[in-house]
Write a structure and sequence with these properties.
Blueprint lengths: L5 H17 L3 E14 L5 H5 L2 E9 L3 E11 L16 E7 L5 E4 L6 E8 L8 E10 L12 E14 L9
Antiparallel strand pairs: 1-8, 2-7, 3-6, 3-8, 4-5, 4-7
Length: 173
Amino acid sequence: MTVSLSGCMGLIQARESLEGMRGEPVDKPYADKIAMTHTFQTESIFDIIGEYSNSTSFSIDDSVTRIEIYFKVTISASDTLACLEQAPTRYVRPTVTTASGAVLWAEDVCEDVSPTTYDFTPEDFDTLGDFTLEVQARGFGETTLNQFQDDFIIIINVYHECRQYPQEPPCDE
């Protein structure tokens, strides 16, 4: 009995030939964006005493090369009205916690914050997994003349790097 292996050997040669034509992979960076913004609008006394609260989660894996946090706060007339430390009436308190519950970044402000960025590398956080952005804030915003409106902007860019092979969909899809 004779067994022919020429068919199998031909498949191996064809696969190697196709892989040779495919081209080299390239490491490509891409970013995921997580944003939380809020503009206060005061329509009743309950809006003044009520607190804005929101949270969102985002995933961190071993492809993450850095995390960038953009933070900006506008509190109307904060340059003339000092913060009342005993009874803060207007404030923004964002916190980013890691999957283990450790605080990666936190702020507690009651006045304007010019656009600021904070950078974190994998050495700055203790674990991978789901991170959480949580914000508590209180502010004022009149809607008649739109001259006094407190607001904040938080944008988190999570930068990844992945190996991109030709003829494959991009990493960020």
